Amino acid sequence: MLFQAIPHMNLQVRDTFNKELPADIVEANTRRQVFEACFSYVKPRVPSNPKLIHVSTEMAESIGLNAKNIQSEDFLQVFSGDKIYPKTQPYAMCYGGHQFGHWAGQLGDGRAINLMEIEHQDQSWALQLKGAGETPYSRTADGLAVLRSSIREHLCSEAMYHLGVPTTRSLSLCLSGDKVMRDIMYDGNPAYEKGAIVCRVAPSFIRFGNFQIFASRNDVVNLKKLADYTIRHFFKEIDENAQDKYVQFFQEVSNRSLEMVIHWQRVGFVHGVMNTDNMSILGLTIDYGPYGWLEGYEPGWTPNTTDRNQRRYRFGYQPFIVQWNLYQLANALFLLTKDAKPLEAILNQYKDDFEKRKLEMMRSKLGLELKENDDVKLIEDLEQRLQLTETDMTIFFRNLSQIRKENTPEANLKILLQAFYEPYELQEKTEEKWLNWLSLYSERLQLENIASEIRAKKMNTINPKYVLRNYMAQLSIDAADKGDYSIIEELYALLKQPYKEQAKYQKWFAKRPEWARHKVGCSMLSCSS
Ligand code: AMP
Ligand code: MG
């Protein structure tokens, strides 16, 4: 019988970052401060026993890989770090950042290694391994990642993409076969966990912090090189010869970052660590660490136990943190513009733009197409009521499309019952407040000249039915730890169509179970990953 060879991968490599920007002249992989360079060449660590757990077939197709390519030995070798793709030169990026409000100096890709940039169907993509070993930027850590956090990153990146939220993507999830020591809750109980490697994908992984590191060192020459490179490749709408190109650049980064955070607020996503090194210059959600999804609607909630006291990165504050982070980026770009005024004007404009975009977004969640003056009050009243009793954000907004203006408020309230964690009937005032709000909402719906069914359909393209609830990710992690990857596959399939009814997956349209309320990994996550 003829042996049929599996076709090798054929990626169209088009490296630009490591071709057009200055490299670190030191080639040894030793931890150090790296000056006057955007990156350091570094090779991924060879994993002891790599095993492919999951691949996003959509992402694979987007970079030109088919089912056969995915099954090939090449795929596993390249995306676990075992083998370097021909004619590529992997590297780690140098960046700094403000962590929890304080300048932290040089950070950099401590465990991310950029493999290559490729082009497919006029789109360019950077491919990056996370958890593939140490780099000059690893500081005191090991350069590795554990299975639980890698599953969370892989599933959530793809789920966010299908929700329509700007995000970095994830191509693949591999086990490395190596053991990694972690103290999950930072309470003196370290233990070995399975090591894993995710291959992340994005047009670019450049962060606010890549600009900040040069500015902090007053290295205007390299700051300019990086800004020019970024504009040339990723902000093609900006004329490279325009006198105010860096101001235009800042405006565009501000717009994209606002767009990103508006989407987070729409779907109830809490990033958890919005340090400036975790802010993509392209306005993509990046670095899925101790993120979480709002279950009970609570603006003060953060999943990150490391931020438990300050709650700097709580849900309701995310849009203002984006502005704070933009302020830090403006401080860096000021070295190029030499004029603070236009940057300040953009920062001030952000607040007005946010109010405007938030109102538009909330109107769309409520199915309101006309603009009425009282809408702001209607929305504020709703946000207050959602907090009176613990109210599941996803279920509430999904069921809201079933509200009918011809129903009594009592009948409409029944439609929303499923979203309440506590029986609201126990609190007389609360029931009254909900009935009162529902009357106002019904009255408001009377003004709209659109059939209820059509409104419901539209609302269901804005308010997802399925999100990656914290306990769902944890269930897939617990099973995967025992070698069962079926829940990863099921959640991946489910979350490809988050707005669709998908009757066979109805069990995932449910409130968080009580066992998950205070469980580590579900409501409490640390930065340990
Ligand atoms: P994060 O809070 O995960 O965004 O990480 C902040 C910084 O720490 C970045 O520079 C990361 O590359 C680095 N880092 C996080 N975890 C590790 C690790 N296990 N090994 C090396 N560097 C790490
Ligand atoms: Mg990070």
Total strands: the figure is 11
Q: Residue-averaged pLDDT, rounded?
A: 96
Uncertain ranges: 1-6
Could you say which structural class the secondary elements and strand pairing correspond to?
A: alpha+beta
Spatial ordering of strands, largest sheet? 2-8-9-7-6
Helix content: 25-40%
- Tell me the span between the first and last alpha carbons: 48 Å
Rg of Cα set: 24 Å
| Share of residues in strands | 5-15%
Number of helices: 17
**SSE series:** HEEHHHEEEEEHEEHHHEEHHHHHHHHH
Overall shape: it is globular
Largest sheet: 5 strands, antiparallel
Small-molecule binders here are: adenosine monophosphate, magnesium ion
Tell me about this structure.
The chain has 529 residues and is α+β, with helices and mostly antiparallel strands. It is built from 17 helices and 11 strands. Among the domains are: 146 residues, no CATH class; 91 residues, no CATH class. It has a 5-stranded antiparallel β-sheet. The chain has a two-stranded antiparallel ribbon with strand order 1-3. A hairpin with a 2-residue loop joins β4 and β5. The relative contact order is 0.11. The N terminus is likely disordered. Magnesium ion (MG) binds next to loops.
Main features:
529 residues; 5-stranded antiparallel β-sheet; 11 strands; 40% helix; alpha+beta
Fold topology:
Blueprint: H1 17-20, E1 39-41, E2 51-55, H2 57-62, H3 67-71, H4 73-80, E3 91-93, E4 96-99, E5 102-106, E6 112-120, E7 123-130, H5 147-163, E8 169-182, E9 191-202, H6 208-216, H7 220-234, H8 245-267, E10 269-270, E11 292-293, H9 318-337, H10 341-366, H11 375-386, H12 393-400, H13 409-416, H14 428-447, H15 452-459, H16 470-481, H17 486-494
Antiparallel strand pairs: 1-3, 2-8, 4-5, 6-7, 7-9, 8-9, 10-11
Helix pairs in contact: 5-16, 6-7, 6-9, 8-9, 8-10, 9-10, 11-14, 13-14, 16-17
Bound molecules: adenosine monophosphate and magnesium ion (MG).
